[in-house]
Design a protein that fits this description.
About 50% of the residues lie in helices and about 20% in strands. The chain is α+β, with helices and mostly antiparallel strands. The strands form two sheets. It has a six-stranded antiparallel β-sheet, with helices on both faces. A two-stranded antiparallel ribbon has the order 1-2. β3 and β4 form a beta hairpin. α2 crosses α3. It is elongated, with a radius of gyration of 22 Å.
């Protein structure tokens, strides 16, 4: 048994997740060979953060609201990735470049899936990794379809933390750029996140402009030059085909 308090809490949560029914603190303590007082202490923290909940009448513990939300998010992203994977593979095969599926989650741009090119490409996006950023085609394609109340703090944070945005990249001009992205249906960037990398990103939107994710194609600038128009079109078509798959699942 690890002495790490974090691992003990996670072991309790994992035990409860695998259980077929609610469990008592004593049963969980015995299963994990923990002192009952230790189990109670960790359960109180998990309960405070809504990962577990205690039944008012029986005193038994079961997964809480946060656990349910996590499960819902997993299910949502699972059917999304099932719909997206064939289109990412086809887009990568047609262009010979790297194709990714990204989403916005709690202030981060998260790479859900990535089909990598056989060519060498120095790219910051890695499957499963979250990036807090307002730069690059992927981020801007997502931010363009988020409420302004979410976008403004992200931009302010980026300005405060890095100071890397140029003077003319004011909040007003940035928001104007997002409007242009909404109007044309895709975002492009070059050298913004990774030097020498060109990218295009098209959002996957369900009815009523519900943002699900964005499809991104990334390539070295020197290879992208003569293919830009074609690759923008291919990326937008891939995003639309994913949308159609989701609507008819």
């Amino acid at each position: 048994m690890s002495d790490s308090p974090t691992e003990r809490a996670l072991q309790l949560l994992a035990l409860l997740a695998r259980a077929a029914e609610p469990m008592s603190a004593r049963a969980m303590a015995e299963a994990l060979e923990l002192p009952l007082s230790t189990a109670y202490r960790h359960l109180q923290v998990l309960k405070k953060w809504d990962w577990v909940q205690e039944h008012a009448r029986t005193g038994l513990y079961e997964p809480g609201p946060m656990s349910v939300q996590l499960a819902h998010g997993f299910d949502q992203h699972s059917w999304l990735m099932q719909a997206a994977r064939p289109e990412l593979e086809a887009l990568s095969a047609r262009t010979g470049e790297s194709a990714g599926l990204l989403c916005y989650l709690h202030g981060h741009i998260v790479c859900l899936d990535l089909v990598e090119s056989q060519h060498a490409l120095r790219c910051s996006f890695v499957k499963g990794v979250a990036r807090s950023t307002v730069r690059g085609a992927s981020a801007k394609a997502l931010l363009a379809h988020l409420p302004e109340a979410l976008v403004q703090p992200l931009l302010a944070e980026a300005l405060a933390e890095s100071g890397s945005l140029a003077a003319d990249d004011s909040v007003a001009s940035f928001m104007n750029g997002l409007q242009q992205i909404r109007e044309r249906g895709y975002a492009v960037s070059e050298h913004e996140v990774d030097q020498g990398v060109w990218g295009v990103s098209a959002p996957v939107l369900l009815p009523r402009a519900q943002l699900i994710a964005t499809v991104s194609l990334m390539a070295p600038s020197q290879r992208a030059g003569k293919h830009i128009t074609e690759w923008i079109q291919q990326t937008c078509l891939a995003a639309d085909r994913i949308r159609q798959r989701l609507l008819h699942r």
